[in-house]
Amino acid sequence: MNILIVFAHPERHSLNGALLDVAVTTLQAQGHKVQVSDLYAMHWKASIDRADFPDIPANERLRVSSASSREFAEGGLTDDVTAEQDKLRWADTVIFQFPLWWFAMPAILKGWVDRVYACGFAYGVGEHNDRRWGDRYGEGTMTGKRAMLIVTTGGWPEHYSARGINGPIDDLLFPINHGILFYPGFTVLPPFVAYRVDRLDNAGFDVLAEQLRERMRTLATTAPIPYRQQNGGDYQIPTMELKTGLEAPGTVGFDLHVALPPPK
């Protein structure tokens, strides 16, 4: 299996760096091919601007979506962006690894998404009509590929529980899992989350590292998050509202977009 890890931490000699080594070593020992995009080491340009679309005339107003679509179709995107797109085409599984900063991914990783997910590549694909709203949310360019997050946080598991003050971790990661990964078609695996990492001692790291090794060994067999496909019949088109009666009583918010397990 070909595996791409997009790594976003400014210090390679860190807990995140050590976990990256654990993941890469374990995956390679299983016979997988691994590429790592270390965004800070690459000095990745995080902001999307006119420089990303070199063929746009100076007197033309920048419309990011249309400029992205045109440059992608004409092969005019910058070399750093096309190189990352090639890695995504190559990969069977993609892993985003990052520390949770202010309830989100680091800006450099969001900038990678903003620039690499060009219109015509990761969005704006497929047929749009009164019965179908494009290929997205379970369909699209990344269909058939798996993806997951490796996330570290200083907070306690209880802080990110259903009643925790930070909010449930699945809710905080929903915009990434459902929006950034599921939207272009990835099959999304449950995230690997490490808590209280600032207080981790050597014994705690050994336990955490073994847990991560097990997740890496089971990438191909781990059951994905059962998100509802946009074009699978659960949503009304064009409003994209979930049809009534499909959820368990009392289900609200993000949980509506996770399918119920089949009856036993």
From TrEMBL:
InterPro entries: Flavodoxin_fold (IPR003680), Flavoprotein-like_sf (IPR029039), NAD(P)H_dehydrogenase_qn (IPR051545)
Record-level GO cellular component terms: cytosol
Domain Flavodoxin-like fold: 1-214
Entry-linked Pfam families: Flavodoxin_2 (PF02525)
PANTHER family: NAD P H OXIDOREDUCTASE-RELATED (PTHR10204), NAD(P)H DEHYDROGENASE [QUINONE] 1 ISOFORM 1 (PTHR10204:SF34)
Family: Belongs to the NAD(P)H dehydrogenase (quinone) family.
Name of the molecule in the record: NAD(P)H dehydrogenase (Quinone)
Organism of origin: Acetobacter lovaniensis
